[in-house]
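Hey team,

Filing this mostly as a record. A colleague (T.K.) asked me to run one chain through the structure pipeline before their review meeting, and I want the input and output archived in the tracker in case anyone asks later how it was produced. No errors, nothing strange. Just documentation.

Input sequence:
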Amino acid sequence: RWILADVDKDGELTQEEFRCFLHPEDKDHMRDIVVTETLEDIDKDGDGRINVDEYIGDMYREGEEGSEEPDWVITEREQFTKFRDRNQDGFMDLDEVRAWIIPPDYDHSEAEAK
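Output structure:
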């Protein structure tokens, strides 16, 4: 992340570069690191993809809210199957994670302003 934020490649970060380092989602040149870090964080088996159990496991641990899965977890499973896993192979790859984390039609700055 440091290397990407260091735009002038001098080995140090200016105030603006440091802002990019702390909030990479705000700058176009840093957004890929957000996607990569999200994938690496959720991908527990290290295969470079996120399966539905890893996706759900990032938000919910079995038994947290009683013996049955809460409705929101069931809805998230459906979201994964119907929308997140675009090629329907049972996994989210890097491009599918990108579409989830940084949708192409989403303006992060505009959303923050609202």
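Quick notes for T.K.: The chain has seven helices and two strands. The longest helix spans residues 71-84.
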